Amino acid sequence: MNLMNAEKHYNTIHNYYLNKYQKKVYKIPLNGGFTCPNIDGTVASGGCTFCSYMGSGDFAGDKHEPLKTQFETIKSMMEKKWKDGLYIAYFQANTNTHAPLPRLKELFEEAISLDPKIVMISIATRPDVLPDDVIDYLRELNQRMPVQIELGLQTIHQETSDLINRAHDLKCFDDAVKRLRKHNIEVVVHIINGLPHESKEMMLETVKHINTLDVQGIKIHMLHLMEKTKMGYEYKQNPWPLLTLEEYVDIVINQILWLRKDIIIHRITGDAPSEMLLAPMWTKKKFVVMNEIDKKLRKLNLYQGDYYEKSHL
Question: What's the CA gap between 286 and 21, in Å, rounded?
Answer without folding.
Answer: 27
